[in-house]
Amino acid sequence: MTSAVQPLASRHRAFLPQRTVAQYFSGGPSLLVSTGLVPAGVAASDFGLDTIFASARGGDIYFFRGADGASDFAETAELPSDLLAIVATDGDAAELCALWTDRGLAPPPVIAVDSALQAVGPILARAKAEIAVLSARCAELQRALVATRAEFEETRTAMQGVMRTLSHRYATKMTLVAVVAPSRDGTVTIGPSTALRRIYPVGTELVTCCALHIAALQHAANAVLTVAFLGVESGRVLGKWRRPGEALFTGWNIFDFPTPVAAVRETIAIEVSLDGGEGCAVTFSLAGEDAAAEAAPLAIRVWTADAGGRFPHAEHWVWDAGGGTRPASGTVSLVGAAALARIVARGRTEAVHDGEADGRPASYLLRGGSSLLHLPDLSIRCAEGVCIELAHKFGDLRGTRFELAVQSPQHCFAGGWRPFGAADGVLRLGLSLPAVLPDVVDLFLCIEDDDRTEQSLAGIVLRQIEVIAGPRSALDVGPRAVRIYPEAWPLSGADPAEPRFKSLKATNYSEAEKYALFEVTIDGLAFGRRAGRPAKFKISKANGRLSIEFRQGQNWPKIFQEWPGRERDRFGDVFRVAHAGERLAIAGMLAPGPDNEVLAALSSLMPAIIAAGMQNFPSAREQIPHWLDAARAFAAAGQATFGGPGA
Q1: Which of 100, 340, 403, 613 has an alpha carbon within 20 to 30 A of 323's alpha carbon?
Q2: What are residue 259's phi and psi, to 5 degrees?
Q3: Count H helices, E strands: the chain?
Q4: How far apart are the C-alpha atoms of 278 and 194, rounded to whole Å?
Q5: Residue 600 in contact with residue 642, Cβ under 8 Å?
Q6: Helix, strand, coil percent content, the chain, rounded in steps of 5
Q7: What is the pTM of this model?
């Protein structure tokens, strides 16, 4: 026995004008109005909205618009779509609804009235309700579209992070997209329980870093500055930092995002507030052009980066502020320049500034013995490991060992001693982080270099420190045998009488068959009680011996109180000091006292100057040992000539 589903026969037939059938299925909201509401003898006209009229003729229903009432009609199995309501008398309403019920469909909402005027209020109420439903649906679809795009951006970011991690690529460069320069005099001060909010006409998408200019700090060491990065249109918190006052300083203070802001196309708003005791305050610089305005913007810098191209280790970032979480497990975040600048060198190593590392130590000189590089207060929240990458600059490191360690008040863990063994001159040290460690630890790089003599220098570069995101587990890692006490090592250069310099820039390297030379500019030359002097000179090497040359001119800083030179060539006045045997040959009349001390300090610093300067010339790397031999001999001759700085 078989059965079949047969369509039900409708008691009413529907007819539409033959020439305009498509208009009745246009998808726009329409009213279906019974001709029973149209006065006799009056033509059907516009009813206020897109109106379709319905006329019952002998049990059949004819649909038409005002101008189609006399058209040729054709029977249709489909009924007009997207009807807002049926407006009809009680009798016509039942007959019109039967069209839908006969076909197994739910009829549109019905507005039963005796006259057209009575329908105005219900029609408007129905339209309002429909608009609310459509608005909610549009918002839902918009949220779904945003979520889809956000998922795409998260996937792209994750892929970029994986590719960068696997290929050991460095972070992509930042692009400065907005600068609001600080005014010389315009400032605004905030104290405890006060807040400032400023809006900037800059988009939030792909922002990776911003900086605020602080003009002054008042008793803020124990305060906490909160900086919130907001989207104006939605009011969402896209980023927040809580920076302790002891980490603030006058000048540009940088605030890193852990990854560039995703596809959030809004306007930037910055809100700053201060928590602390009575009397603490932070003074911000205002915009140079608008400093006199009542709501002048704060001085700010904003950078962007490619999606997933930059994963800095965002210091003082509040992870729960906007529902944000760490990047996916395994993502490598680089410790930024501000944190690296806090590294303290102890023992027999010396930080060297090369002028091209944002003012932070880019390399270190090893003089033999035990040394320690100490980075305090490193955040390791939601991190499963930490790595450090070192590069060999010059010298023999075969007898040098390195160990990476982390330490909290209760625990100390280390990864074991390792030497440089890679052919490419790169050493990567890694350490898994046990779950017992707190969210903030001290990071140490321990160096053992016992076989090196005082005169045999070596150089290393601290390329980067990486924090690897991921959950920490109870690893079977034993504690370090001996706890690290950084105070046990003397600070490098702790003797204020020892010559030192802040940064160095080397340029214009030239090499011929019998000689080679380059130009050096030093900032912050210090010795004894004298500090902060700039110096500029040329260094040349011929027959294994060094000479230095000073000149007078607009681009040459005045380093001597009395110009000692007695020679002149086609470029102007010149003063030369050369290594000649056991002493230095001075081609001029060097005044005793301060001028003598300057030259004594420079001669003693010559090995460090050569070690830092020659790194700027890749073509001359093979010549570094010869330059260092000549520099040590020059320093020894200077000691014999001057008796040491300050003598």
Answers
A1: 340
A2: -155, 150
A3: 6, 35
A4: 12
A5: yes
A6: 20, 40, 40
A7: 0.55
